[in-house]
Amino acid sequence: MKKKLLLFLLTCIFIISVPFSALAEDYGTEYPAYIPYSGGAYIEVQSSLGRGSLVFQDTYKTGYFGFSGSGYNLFNISNSTLTGRLIMQNGTTYQARFSSFNTLQYYYESGMTREWRDVTTSKIYNTNCEFLDNTTNDRGNIIDIFYGDSFNYSVVAFLAFILIVLIIIAIKKG
């Protein structure tokens, strides 16, 4: 009985000591069939222009996108301008960009009018990009509970090692 109680207590201590992160948003990963390209970073969204997909260079998958405000309006969190394509579900294609620390824009051309116009995004359907969200809204989809911090990994590994040693000692004494 003493051995089972000790094992239960040690397991509880280990579980409590592991730093859990807030839940991350889970987005689909199905590559939209209407995109005429193969590969790259993509984000299928519902926008003020309708349903469409943003396609960028593959290097923009991680560390470039966050959110503006309390909804799902995408925001460039990097110090560089990201350029790519906005491909609508109906096949219309626009040049797209995220200026440094800004939201999505598309290039509008009609007659003599040529200008960059703002686009808001309200929903994310599918993506292979990583979104950062340091607010309490949990829109980000980073699964790594330690955010790549090797110190946190080391602490958990050390605690697991101690737990295993204590369990072995408890079994040998019991």
How helical, in percent, are the residues? Answer: 10-25%
Strand order of the largest sheet: 8-7-6-5-2-1-9
Distance between the ends: 9 Å
The structure class reads alpha+beta
* Rough outline: elongated
Stretches where pLDDT is under 50 for at least 5 consecutive residues are none
Strands, count: 9
Q: From the structure provided, what is the oligomeric state, counting identical versus distinct chains? A: single chain
List the total number of helices. Answer: 2
Largest sheet: 7 strands, antiparallel
Return the string of H and E elements. Answer: HEEEEEEEEEH
User: Please, what is the average pLDDT?
Assistant: 86
Residue share in β-strands: 25-35%
Radius of gyration: 23 Å
